[in-house]
Amino acid sequence: MKKWLAFLAAVLLVGFVSGCGDDGDNPADTDQTPDPAYVGSAVCIDCHKDLDPDLVEAYLESGHPYKLNKVVDGQQPDYPFTPDFNPPAGFSWEDVTYVIGGYHWKARWLDS
């Protein structure tokens, strides 16, 4: 648990630091620097798996990577380690565009 919390704190710190101090008024800023983009968990895990494989496994089983899932072709998103579940009564997967949560616990259902 401590390793998982340390990993989460490091992720939050990197996100905070990377977003600090860039108000666009620095003359050293140029258009040559690419805009930051989301690279996905796989890129982060690639480095962390060599440092601490147990931490990566704890992260993957925490549910954090599955916070927001798009419903594709009316099929339940893949939630490893979680039994199948269904949308609320009166709705089907075809009625749902995104699921927030749903990993071992409650889910929120969104439609576009």
Shape: flat
**SS-based class:** alpha+beta
List the strand order in the largest sheet: 1-2-3
Radius of gyration: 18 Å
**What is the straight-line distance between the termini?**
36 Å
List how many beta strands DSSP finds.
3
Q: Element order, helices and strands? A: HHHEEE
Number of helices: 3
Indicate the percent of residues in helices.
Answer: 25-40%
Number of structural units classed as domains: 2
Mean pLDDT: 77
Report the major sheet: 3 strands, antiparallel
The percent range for strand residues is 5-15%
Poorly predicted sequence stretches spanning 5 or more consecutive residues: 16-21
Detailed description of the structure:
The protein is of the alpha+beta class. The chain has three helices and three strands; from the N terminus they run H-H-H-E-E-E. It has a three-stranded antiparallel β-sheet, with no helix packed on it. 6% of the residues are buried.
